[in-house]
Amino acid sequence: MFTKIMVPVDLAHQDKLTKSLECAAELARHFDIPVVYVGVTGTAPGATGHTPEEFASHLAEFAAAQAERSGISTAHHAIISHDPRVELDARLVHAAEEIGADLIVMEGHVPNVLDHFLPSDGGIVAKLAKATVMVVRN
Amino acid sequence: MSDVTTDQGIPEPEGHTEVIDTDFEIGQDNVEGTVGPFGFDVHNPVFLISGLTIVAFVFYALVFQEQATAAFGALRPWLTGTFDWVFLTSANIFVLFCLFLIVSPWGSVRLGGADAVPDYSYSGWFAMLFAAGMGIGLMFFGVLEPVYHMAISQPLGVPSPFAEDGTIIDANVEAAKRMGLAATIYHWGLHPWAIYAVVALALALFSFNKGLPLTIRSAFYPIFGDRVWGWTGHVIDILAVFATLFGLATSLGFGAQQANAGLEHVFGIANNANVQVVLITIITGIALVSVLRGLDGGVKVLSEINMVLAALLLLFVLLAGPTMVIFSDFFAGLGTYATEIVALSNPIGREDTGYMQGWTSFYWAWWVSWSPFVGMFIARVSRGRTVREFIICVLIIPSLVCVLWMAVFGGVAIDQVLSDPTTSAVKAQVIDSYNPPISLFAMLEGLPLASITSTLGIVLVIVFFVTSSDSGSLVIDTITAGGKIDAPLPQRVFWCTFEGAVAIVLLLGGGLSALQAMVISTGLPFTFVLLLMCVAIVKGLAAEKNAVPPTAGGGS
After folding, report:
1. What is the layout of strands, in order, in the sheet containing A103-108?
2. Which of B29, B486, B496, B544 best tests the A interface by mutation, with the highest count of A CBs <10 A?
3. Cβ of B113 and A51 within 8 Å?
4. With an 8 Å Cβ cutoff, are B2 and A63 in contact?
């Protein structure tokens, strides 16, 4: 049914990702397919790495840890963006095509009034991506 | 197991950098949470103290208006008059320091690591650094300053071409014309861009190469060490936010008055506070859309549009005006700038104090007070350039563009004033009465298609304000988020709106000039801060030497 799962991760907020990670791991085991963890970072030093390479290596460690923990095959994919907060959604949609993922599993918040003005990331990705998108409510 | 597809999104490895090993974790002092539906991620205490201090000063300027106007109104001229030698000497040091970096071996250090690739093309990069830092001044002073220096301020004692009774003294004309342009070029050439370049280079180096957060305090790490993560750093960042926000808000307030004066002059639209509030709201509204569309989709696009519009106006004035005269003015002005730059930048024993203190010293303080904002913005978009390339593109090329602009706008205006002094609108608005906001439109009136070019002029004034306002909001947001460039969007919206609100409150309640004088006064302490930054840059580059691979030794 699916061949590859993409899971966007925010390394700075791993504690909030539990549901989507669990869900993706379950699906990966069920279909026996790999999971690619995708992270977007800015060019300036941030909480998740002083340089883009350091960010990529943290993401690699994260992917390896998930593989060990859930017994699935994992990979990682790091993206540099000039303005990560704004470009996030477009970059994720592009990344899904680039890595050939046909299922995106991502964390999403419970909708609130602000979503009318600043649409949620999950909503935009679902609208734009060719892949199936599963937004896991936190 | 981990099936690695490493770096697919990253074009190539960025090479070796000398990341500074510090216990500080970026974001460790941040407070995250939500207020209603709004998420936030701000630095504690920089965000709160900056915000509260700004509100307190607005309150002070409104309630104790007379006192504030008297205090700051006197403080600014006193500082630029008394410490003129500090400003002039420091600016000279910054220029020499930048020129030294171009020829030094450190010029081949690459910002962002030895193999980093430039984030932006030359055109996008150049448009952004220009639109953020200086665009609006070109519109405002392009006609005013050359004419004023030629006829009134008499730099280096070069006499005015106008006699007491208003007749032209032919013998004085050539020298006064050349000095009018050269004295203007001096204020818009190497010195201001060197001030910006020092701040921008310090921030880019310590952020992209040393791995410290993209915030002003990081440049002081070599001097203060781990103390920059405590109150020493908090104070530096808060001062920067304070100067940036008030600098933007007060020029937005004055800018609205200028644009309104232009609208009245060209279209006969009423000149009152209501129209100005509408203008500020429009500018802030466009800036909001721009910050929400982000650095590439908003700020860069608007900057590029701006550069195209400005180039069109420049080209039109060049062709519609006396083209050959302008070209000869350009080279004569540039030549005089080259021969007189030493005399113009001499900090002591000057007799032309009206020019030196009233203009030069004032400008230097002004550029320095804007430098945290412009420098940080330039830093953010300059990753991947070598130090040599960076200095050449931030110092030399913008200087040349400013020279060209001043030569074209000033040259045409001077030509109008001298060829027909009795009917010249520029002479009426600059020399006979001092009416700065109208000067540009007065010059355009003397050329064909004035209604079209004046409209373009007003649009440019407004868009240049937008491009300062949006980049300023990004800078303030980054500083108050402890150097994080991915803080929640509502924070940008907050700072952008806050800036417009402060401008409106000061416009309606009074206090614009008091607070602008105060911001320019911050130029004095920041001058010393910038001198320290030069020391920090040298220390930082000295440690970076090993990061340059042998192949890159040739430079840019």
Report:
1. A74-81, A35-42, A5-8, A103-108, A132-137
2. B486
3. yes
4. yes
| pLDDT of B110 | 92
Instruction: Indicate which of A9, A32, A57, A86 best probes the interface with B, i.e. most B CBs within 10 Å of its own CB.
Output: A86
Which residues of A make CB contacts under 8 Å with B?
A: 12, 34, 36, 38, 42-47, 50-54, 56, 60, 63-64, 67, 73-80, 82-87, 95, 98-99, 112-115, 118
Q: What band does B329 get if pLDDT is binned at 50, 70 and 90?
A: confident
Contact B14 A51 (CB under 8 A): yes
> In whole angstroms, how large is the CA radius of gyration of chain A?
14
**Residues B4-24 as b or e (16 or more Cβ within 10 Å = b):** ebbbbbbeeebbbbbebebeb
Per-residue tokens: B106: 């450190």
Q: Does residue B22 lie in a domain region?
A: no
In this prediction the ipTM stands at 0.86
* Structural contact between residues A40 and A87, judged by C-beta atoms closer than 8 angstroms: yes
CATH number of the domain where residue B463 is located? 1.20.1740
Residues of A in contact with B297 (CB under 8 A): 86-87
Cβ atoms of B301 and A86 closer than 8 Å: no
Check A47 against B25: CB less than 8 A apart.
yes
How many separate domains does chain B show? Answer: 1
Contacts of A74 in chain B (CB under 8 A): 1-3
Q: CA-to-CA distance for B88 and B348, rounded, in angstroms?
A: 9
| DSSP codes, B121-167 | -HHHHHHHHHHHHTHHHHHHHTTHHHHHIIIII-GGGPPPSB-TTS-
Give domain status of residue B9, yes or no: no
First to last CA, chain A: 26
Lowest mean pLDDT among B69-73, B128-132, B180-184, B308-312: B128-132
Residue B555 has pLDDT above 50, yes or no: no
Q: Indicate the residue of B9, B37, B214 with minimum beta-carbon distance to A44.
A: B214
B24 lies in a domain?
A: no
The domain locations on chain A are: 5-137
Task: Say if B544 falls within a structural domain.
Answer: yes
What's the 3-state SS for B44-92?
Answer: CCHHHHHHHHHHHHHHHHHHCHHHHHHHHHHHHHHHHHHCHHHHHHHHH
CATH fold of A5-137: Rossmann fold (3.40.50)
Q: Which residues of B touch A52 (CB under 8 A)?
A: 10, 14
Q: Is A103 helix (H, G, I), strand (E, B) or coil?
A: strand
Q: Pairing relation of β-strands B38-43 and B30-35?
A: antiparallel
Chain segment B356-413, per-residue pLDDT in tens: 998 999 999 989 998 999 999 999 999 999 999 999 999 988 888 888 999 999 999 9
Answer for the pair B480, B50: CB distance below 8 angstroms, yes or no.
yes
CB-closest option in B6, B26, B38 to A114? B38
The pLDDT of residue B554 is: 40
| Distance of alpha carbon B245 from alpha carbon B168, whole angstroms | 45
Chain B neighbors of A82, CB-CB under 8 A: 119, 294-296, 381
Which domain range does residue B532 map to?
A: 35-554
